[in-house]
Amino acid sequence: MSRNAMQWAQRPKFPPTHYVDSRVYTSEEIFREEQEKIFNKVWIIACHESEIPNAYDYRTFRHPGGQNLIIIRGDDNQVRAFYNICPHRGNVILYDPSGNAKRMTCIFHAWSFDCRGNCIDISRGKEGYQDRLSLQDVGLREVRCEVGYGGFVWVNVDDNACTLKEYIGDALSMLEPHMQEPLEVFHYHKAIVNTNYKLWHDTNSEFYHDFMHYFNRITGMLQPGYFDRKYVGYPNGHASVGSMEIKYDKYEGSKDRKVGWPGLAPGGWILIDIFPGMTYNLRTSVLRMDTAIPLGPNKVIIEFRGLGLKRDTPEMRAERIFDHNMIWGPFGRNLHEDLLGVHGQGIAMRDERTDSRWVLHGREENMTIHDEGGMRHYYAEWSRRMGRPAYDPFGDRGIAGKAAAA
Ligand code: FES
Ligand SMILES: [Fe+2]
């Protein structure tokens, strides 16, 4: 065996907290277990309140646990969530991704439901069920739903889970002073990437990869203060990366930024990762929200929302859209650089011939911006919830270890 073949077969010479087995990113078995033990137990952002501003507005949501949900604003202004499943014979009720429905009628046998999930009509009900079934017996299955932390609509399919407040804890305390006013989504797009959802969250958990971003090297890394940013971990796997001032004028072609954000220093930046796949990213004039919806171990939908203030004038809004799209959104280069990074990881990790490897999370720089402690913090929570250590999830010391033992 060549020297480097031997290197690849050995576990990294780091403590086990400082690397993970790459099969946590590719295994079908692990993915199913993540749906059950993670996604079906935690609070997940489904959308933002501004996407359903009026009574009866709805959005459908593919929950990362696999369930199809309806998020609908009631006639009492309350936002509720339900399974998008008819209690009669289990048909899908709403097919459109968004709309306005005073009455939700199942196309199959025409049972109807109102915005509070009550069944309001059973076609030929008396004739078929006589007194054996009443409208009260067959409402939509409600899912826990809360609006908060910037007006996002959160859902939890576990009836026994802790409250949203308990789940978040202090993780968003750095951002909360900047999210006191009503916000509004002005841009939405999504990317479907052949990679694992955790790899996307990893890019939001470390900034060592700023070497990949031309723009960040110029506006951030070369500027004083960049290496002072501290990574702070919170319970439940959440984390924040300290604020810094970005020198946008260092980027050739940038223009003066006219709109800021309430309470945020000009050029300020606050980034907060919420376990298991959501990121608040407030930069100067725009809040970007990333949410990951895995479709399998090797495929993920990443949703991106750009938010401004609800009270924006048209001029302010135009400026925010410009700022968002020029750099951080679909017409900037950063996003595509990130997507290329995780796409490449996805290709390499799916290749079974290289599956015997470990992924290093071993940088230690006093928990500053290039430290990989963010990922270590995440995988500690992941391992706890999964009941499997991320460095050895199958108890076989990696595929190489398994082969050696055989
Ligand atoms: S399945 Fe919906 S009305 Fe029959
Ligand atoms: Fe990035």
Automatic annotation (TrEMBL):
Domain of life: Bacteria
UniProt keyword Iron, yes or no: yes
Alphabetized InterPro entries for the sequence: ARHD_Rieske_2Fe_2S, Rieske_2Fe-2S, Rieske_2Fe-2S_sf, Ring_hydroxy_dOase_asu_C_dom, Rng_hydr_dOase-A
Sorted UniProt keywords: 2Fe-2S, Dioxygenase, Iron, Iron-sulfur, Metal-binding, NAD, Oxidoreductase
Cofactor annotation: Fe cation
SUPFAM superfamilies listed in its UniProt record: Bet v1-like (SSF55961), ISP domain (SSF50022)
GO MF term list: 2 iron, 2 sulfur cluster binding; dioxygenase activity; iron ion binding
Residue ranges annotated for the Rieske domain, each copy included: 44-140
PANTHER family according to UniProt: CHOLINE MONOOXYGENASE, CHLOROPLASTIC
Protein name according to UniProt: Aromatic ring-hydroxylating dioxygenase subunit alpha
Origin species: Pelomicrobium methylotrophicum
